[in-house]
From TrEMBL, chain A:
The lineage of its organism: Eukaryota, Metazoa, Chordata, Craniata, Vertebrata. This is Integrator complex subunit 11. GO terms for biological process: RNA polymerase II transcription initiation surveillance; snRNA 3'-end processing; transcription elongation by RNA polymerase II. It comes from Nannospalax galili (Northern Israeli blind subterranean mole rat). Its cofactor is Zn(2+). Coiled coil: none annotated.
Amino acid sequence: MSPHRVFPLPVWAGQDVGRSCILVSIAGKNVMLDCGMHMGYNDDRRFPDFSYITQSGRLTDFLDCVIISHFHLDHCGALPYFSEMVGYDGPIYMTHPTQAICPILLEDYRKIAVDKKGEANFFTSQMIKDCMKKVVAVHLHQTVQVDDELEIKAYYAGHVLGAAMFQIKVGSESVVYTGDYNMTPDRHLGAAWIDKCRPNLLITESTYATTIRDSKRCRERDFLKKVHETVERGGKVLIPVFALGRAQELCILLETFWERMNLKVPIYFSTGLTEKANHYYKLFITWTNQKIRKTFVQRNMFEFKHIKAFDRAFADNPGPMVVFATPGMLHAGQSLQIFRKWAGNEKNMVIMPGYCVQGTVGHKILSGQRKLEMEGRQVLEVKMQVEYMSFSAHADAKGIMQLVGQAEPESVLLVHGEAKKMEFLRQKIEQEFRVSCYMPANGETVTLPTSPSIPVGISLGLLKREMAQGLLPEAKKPRLLHGTLIMKDSSFRLVSSEQALKELGLTEHQLRFTCRVHLQDTRKEQETALRVYSHLKNTLKDHCVQHLPDGSVTVESILIQAAAHSEDPGTKVLLVSWTYQDEELGSFLTALLKNGLPQAPS
Amino acid sequence: MKLYCLSGHPTLPCNVLKFKSTTIMLDCGLDMTSTLNFLPLPLVQSPRLSNLPGWSLKDGSVFLDKELKECSGHVFVDSVPEFCLPETELIDLSTVDVILISNYHCMMALPYITEHTGFTGTVYATEPTVQIGRLLMEELVNFIERVPKAQSASLWKNKDVQRLLPSPLKDAVEVTTWRRCYTMQEVNSALSKIQLVGYSQKIELFGAVQVTPLSSGYALGSSNWIIQSHYEKVSYVSGSSLLTTHPQPMDQASLKNSDVLLLTGLTQIPTANPDGMVGEFCSNLALTVRNGGNVLVPCYPSGVIYDLLECLYQYIDSAGLSSIPFYFISPVANSSLEFSQIFAEWLCHNKQSKVYLPEPPFPHAELIQTNKLKHYPSIHGDFSNDFRQPCVVFTGHPSLRCGDVVHFMELWGKSSLNTVIFTEPDFSYLEALAPYQPLAMKCVYCPIDTRLNFIQVSKLLKEVQPLHVVCPEQYTQPPPAQSHRMDLMIDCQPPAMSYRRAEVLALPFKRRYEKIEIMPEPPPRPTQPTSSKKRKRVSEDVPDCKVLKPLLSGSIPVEQFVQTLEKHGFSDIKVEDTAKGHIVLLQEAETLIQLEEDSTHIICDNDETLRVRLRDLVLKFLQKF
């Protein structure tokens, strides 16, 4: 068996926040981690290049499983394309909330891409359904046996509802993939947690590699302040959101703020998916943070008091209001309609809480454009204030370090971040934890050596024999012992040689040596034997030396007999006899006796 | 490996397993049947129950009349109800490392164990088990604390007194271990020691033992447990069900290849078919209501009630009951109904897929929304305003000794229009009714126990093939009331080992292997520490005979051996045949080699070089082990 095995890691999620898709080969198993789409592209670059995995042959044959960490499209958006259009029929693992929400977001995105933008070569609704049929839902901390050797386990990751980190384990080798995570509990989710599982490799996202969280609380305060100021001066606030995820967090944020400040300005949420979305949060409340879970019977945080369903007619109401409207990029639908109505008034404000794809109205106004050409050559002048505020819940540098400390990996691999920031973090990790840290570029392969340990079953008989020698095994220190390793049906057993012979139906072949040692001694044989006995007894204090009634002497299992010399009466012959197993002692004794016996005290 | 059996109740087990130097408690069930010996705790002042005559011994001594009261021809203890605890003296419970909980009914003794025995370990349970277990405890504490009773009876427990009492008090067992209910503070402290686990999660205990909960199909979050080392496996099967109700189906495959399977928590009513019982329940309910009567269903606040509500949801419209109010009265009614909707991951597939829509998994959400089902924390407050008859009331406690159910028994017992339907199998309904006799109301017994019956058990055992089965003694013989039913017992080969309360069993276990890790290359030989101590020189050189040499196997063909000798420069070789083999003589070297089937003997002068050369040539023909 070779002392080192390797696992190559072609990484697609390298230094780019665009999309995640990582291939891990561990001890002969191939696992794909996430299957994201790039929201910034409208062409082939949108999906990962799956021909990279295997040039020939089917993906199903090559991949043992696919794991999806959470429902954001940059982590699962390419899944129907991958499974239905490229072709993959193996298992896809994700948590229950991800399984519930993922198809809805995929369908949403599909509608925008195909129905609104008229894109061809995109997956269909049926493909999303077929793809979801291949999904196997996992519980947190459940050990899922993918096959006899490959097992995976999900840990809580925070970030969004149902987000998970995954441990992938084959034998004694393991990899942990974090997906996106956050280490501080936020308004509705708990903090990521992992046990000290000591993986060979930890693959962590590094979106905020250099930020030491000033940030979330400040951003929240900032957000509330801006909203508050705007409504105070009678303006209207538009917050374009996607129905799931950030929307709920912002709602909780505003709801508690309104409650605390006793504000009466109405908050609306555009109808449709919203109620449904909140329902998901209610039903999967066990995935939210401690506080929400504890109080949900008395008060479900996702049943909002201040936030009411929006009606199209409300947009023309006078006076201040706050409206959450879908979709999040202002490219269509209700959010765009409201935007057009409110854009001309400088008292109003639009807050973009997330990323916007190129070509959308959202992207245009964020990049500073203030004159927008709408359909029918109409030009819309944007006088309202435009704010961008990122609320995505990612771990910051401190959080990443914390997770590395929790899991105690042998090495770390950074993905999902920008090269410069990652370099800073890489150095920090190497300094603080003294482990190697990698940051591959897109498409680059990292290969890690591992030193495998080989678990075997040792028979208790053999183990007890070892213990009987008085040497208790010292923890974590190797020691030498003799036994026979039997390999059968992929199990390894270490047994005593006797048992091995017995199990294999073999008999022992005894190899015995008898050496003649000539001694100058005129006395009788019995006396010679007695002299040999007392000499050895004196010399070998740690051994069992015995004088037997028949006149022979034994040292442990070595037999010494004295005989007369056939020709020379002044010489006695000592016959020293031992088996192969006692060879060292036997050969030592003959050498010792050859030197003669000490003079007997006269 | 030893099993300490602390409870004799087959469905409320409490056992301690000592396995590879870990001490693991399996469940801590609380036997509440003891409460049947106590008077009910009325919520509203009951003239009948408060003016009962005291009971005195036949010899006329009256010292017991404060403690014992005569009611409906039976004698009851007039004090705060007490529960029969698991054995606490059989083993030092402070040495227990972990407690594994299999379902919420089997954790009711937890506060007694964790708070009063010096226990410092960890408790493992699934999230639904903990949440619903908390509700059950909360309800129990609330029921008992709501009716404060100063008196705590103890005189009757004196052995000499007890044997003079009428049945069933005379026959009550372990009365000295009976304790009053715990407080909410103790409950909270006990529950804070629980660590949440998920199905199929592998939990390492001290690196020696791994424990894993498996879905058992009986209740929300209910589990069986695998306790295993690398080479030994014990399966602990507690309340399990193969019926399709609301929980995730039972995981049977993972129980395979057990050395020992500890089997507890089978159905308490092996002769009743749960589906049939549900049908009877519905028809009796409908009949009573149609005739203008009320229906009382004494029940726990979680579990079968979810299934009953679901049946009623499908049934009420077709049975023309849509105008009849359904009341669920319990201090934890609201919590129980809310909690049931958020454990999607622990539900059967059908209910799980509802959540994906997203819709609440249980239809009682709709019953509540449409005002058909109303829930109240107690009969006081809002309920008294909303109360309309005829109606159906679900309320506890199923023992009829405490809780709101006591009030309804007093209220409705006198009318034959009303019906009480017993669905919980934990208490004998006749004993439960004893203090309310004589009753005019109808009593229907529809026990719904979805746990394994003996046919399912024998199928399961055939499937998973454990080497040994261990079970409570009740399962190794037919039930006392049906002693001819030989099919109502466990039948397996080898026969199941049985246990009873306060027994210690040595489990038939042969540990033969232990896990170690080997390194691809041998470690460097440890260098002898150069000690400065003075020693005799010779003994320092004495080889360590503890270094084992391999055993040899094989045989030596004489002709090839002689050829080899010749090739290596030995001449003058003579071979003699003997009875068992051959003797090879090297005349020049005065050396003799006896070759036999299973042995070789080299006899030579003291010439180490020669001996080693010959040895190596012999070894060429042999395999080392």
